[in-house]
Amino acid sequence: MIQRLAEVRIAKSNEKKLREKGAVEAGKDHYKWMVFMHVSFFAVFFLEVYVLSATPPSWWLVPFVLFLIAQVIRVWAISSLGVYWNTKILLLPGATVVAKGPYRFMRHPNYTVVSLELLVIPLIFGAYYTAILFTLLNILMLRVRIPAEEKALMELTDYEKSHGHKQRFFPSQ
User: Fold this and answer.
1) Which residue of 46, 72, 89, 136 could cross-link 26, Cys pair, CB 3.0 to 4.6 Å?
2) What pTM, to 2 d.p., does this model score?
3) What is the DSSP letter of 98?
4) What mean pLDDT, rounded, does the chain reach?
5) Surface-to-core class of residue 145, CB atoms within 10 Å of its CB (0-12 exposed, 13-18 middle, 19+ buried)
6) Is the pLDDT of residue 93 over 70?
């Protein structure tokens, strides 16, 4: 939770810098629901662990190692994007898309990290209901979030040129 609060501070600082340069925000309509989902995750997780007395499984080390790997990728993703990293979809029109760090290998490494965290953090503590519920909710959220981000990237940046082909995540029907 402390990590999330630190990330919010980084995002707010980056947002201010980007808006001063003329950044445009996409996906405003779903952002509040994404924040609600993440806040709810912590509430449900703590309820399951403390009220329902979830207990860590004997294999807790497996999800813990996955969590540590996710943190390395998170720091790599955030540092690779620098001032462009944000929890909101904020884009500078005409910008060159960052294609270094984990972005050389995949388009949305931060979403991969968050997806992994929503699964493995509860598993470390045996909070299976939280793991299942928020993994499913996150899939639904990303079915909205990623197309909104990719559409904005295609419209406002050199995304199609820099990544060689059209949107590949959750293409619209």
Assistant:
1) 89
2) 0.87
3) P
4) 91
5) buried
6) yes
Q: What is the pLDDT of residues 58-69, one digit of tens each?
A: 999 999 999 999
Spell out the SS3 assignment of 2-68. HHHHHHHHHHHHHHHHHHHCCCEEECHHHHHHHHHHHHHHHHHHHHHHHHCCCCCCCCCHHHHHHHH
Contact 75, 50 (CB under 8 A): no
Task: Compute the chain's Rg from CA coordinates.
Answer: 17
Stretch 68-84: mean pLDDT? 96
- Token pair, residue 136, equals 């499913």
Helix or strand holding residue 162 (H, E): helix 159-163
**Which of 16-22's residues contact partners 24+ apart within 8 Å by CB, and which partners?**
17/83, 18/83, 18/84, 18/86, 18/90, 18/92, 19/90, 21/92, 22/92, 22/93
Three-class SS of residue 118?
helix
